[in-house]
Amino acid sequence: MYLIQSNNYKTACDEVVIKTRIVSINNKKMNKISLLALGLLFSTSFLFTSCSDDDNIVPVEAKEVIIDASDYTKWVYFSFEEGKIVGESAANETRDALDWDIAFHRYNFRTNSGTSGSGQGGLLESTENTGQIGWDNVVEAPETGYKVDEDITIMQVFEMPPTPTTYVTTGGSTVMTGGTEVGLTVSFDMSTRQYSVNDQIYVIKTADGKYAKLWVSDFYDADSKSGHVTLKYSYQEDGSRSLR
Q: Is 124 exposed, middle or buried (0-12, 13-18, 19+ CB in 10 A)?
């Protein structure tokens, strides 16, 4: 005669699982098992579970940084992994390194991709979500749709009237950008001489192909000086597309 015995133990996911084994018993002992014990034995349910992929996803943390991009003569480079500025270059130069993910020059932006860098970067705009109300709605980075950097024209020195050396063509994003048109990431109103932001959320691929979501929430510092970019971002360090 055989009796099924069960033992409980915990998996790495801290979920209780029933482990069973069969032991041999003799007929005399079997006769002593009460009907109640048999009822409890055969009413036992066995649960088998396994860890899902979601158990290994690292939750992202929202952070905010203010970048001084007010100098027309240079780009400022930022790393999401390091959470800090990692270098600068002249306005007409790029940075051939994989230690940066996004760069700032006044209201111009770069990703480590295309004509700006040798990384796996790129940008897309989350058109249905704005920073004020839609930040938490962006929970996963799209798999495709990222646009790499192209040649753009920027002002490398502020001078009026412009001269042949005022502007330069260099690498930059055409997704996050600035100018006098309404609706850009940063727009300049010629009549009021004021800057405004479009409040859109963007998703970026980093130099090494990871993901982050970001929002430019302001273009002024506490003293109302322009060119100071307030950037909110959440960076997924584990390489998954989860942004929650």
A: middle
